[in-house]
Amino acid sequence: MMRNLLVAFAIALAGAVVGCKPKESGKPKVAVSIFPLHDVTRRIAGDRLDVVLVLPPGKSEHGYDPTPKEIAKLEGTKLGIAVGLDMDGWVEGIMKSAGGSPRMVHVGAKVPTIPIDVEPIGEDEEHADEHGHDAHEGEHEEHEGEHHDEHDAHAKKAAPAPHDDHGHAAKGAPDPHFWMDPQRMSAAVDVIAAELTTLDPAGKDIFAKNAAAVKESLARLDADTAARVKTWSKKTIVTFHGSMSYYTTRYGLRIAAVVEPLAGKEPTPQYVAEVLAAIKRGQAAALFSEPQLDRRPAEVIASEARIPLGELDPVGGVAGRDSYETLITWNTDQLEKVLK
Ligand SMILES: [Zn+2]
User: Fold this and answer.
1) What is the mean pLDDT of residues 156-163?
2) Distance of CA 183 from the midpoint of ligand 1 (Å)
3) Domain boundaries, the chain
């Protein structure tokens, strides 16, 4: 009898090993692309679901190549939550690599967005690619000589864009960084709670209660931030990539220029000259680099323009920015240092 039990145990163990299953909680697994959405999702889920973050802290949200170990972590995912709006399409690829076909929710498609409003100064950014594909380099060179007569947006739209299969980063397209506005994040909380309820109907009341608590906290954060920004004497900044428009729109700040309209794409000398002119024109108080991106172009421009260089973080997930609220507050702190 004992022997039979041992054999049964050995077979079960072998099965587990063959299946290569990592330690599982048994709870339905939900994968979330970036930290801000992950933080609110895990708080809404409480302990009913296993909520996994896909993008490791420190990486840019505009492109990500995971290690096999990180892919394996996503095996068995039932629900994927992403921003969408052509920002974090990499998450779908990772899910496929992990062997599943979870239901995907694109939160950005379900909350009110604003169009990308970066002026096409200097570079033909409409045809460039945020994901840093080298295939676009040639296209840029083609347009090098056309800067001066390329300022008509309609002419640009009419130009062929053979690689522009994502449709993102174009002026007028929905800006994906909605989470930087706590009010829009609050709308996202409702979207996420509804999706978690579809996944786990028995958790409905718990999700609703947790979502209400998160929304209360976001409302406090929003009111606190608005009250602080109101006291600042300066209102104009230069940001590193186009991640801050929702924040500045919500709280009445102004962005004079963006150093890298396409994250990870180094600005051309021509574009840098245009940014410097825009800093002067707009009397920008400071320039902000971002921890996920190369700081050097920002250092060069800030020193050239003789304005302070600060740092803003659209993603967080590190010490001191380990909740959505502390992330937003940290950014407000950075802005306050130079704008108050
Ligand atoms: Zn971004």
Assistant:
1) 33
2) 18
3) 25-107+179-220
What pairs with residue 209 in β-bridges? none
pLDDT digits (tens, 9 = 90+) for 263-316: 777 888 998 999 999 999 999 999 999 999 888 889 999 999 999 999 999 999
Give 39's contacts (C-beta < 8 A, 6+ positions apart): 317, 322, 323, 324, 327
Return phi, psi of residue 106, to 5°: -105, 100
Task: Say what the pTM is.
Answer: 0.80
Tokens 């958790």 locate to 203
Q: Is 60 helix (H, G, I), strand (E, B) or coil?
A: coil
Q: What is the pLDDT of residues 217-236, one digit of tens each?
A: 999 999 999 999 999 999 99
Specify the CATH number of the domain 25-107+179-220: 3.40.50.1980
**Dihedral of the alpha carbons of 184, 103, 38, 172, in degrees to the nearest 10:** -40
Taking the centre of ligand 1 as the mean of its atom positions, its distance from the CA of residue 261, in whole angstroms, is: 9
Distance CA 13, CA 89 (A): 37
Spacing, Cα 263 to ligand 1 middle (Å): 6
Spacing, Cα 20 to ligand 1 middle (Å): 35
- DSSP-assigned beta bridge partners for residue 311: 289
Binning pLDDT at 50, 70 and 90, where does residue 171 land?
confident
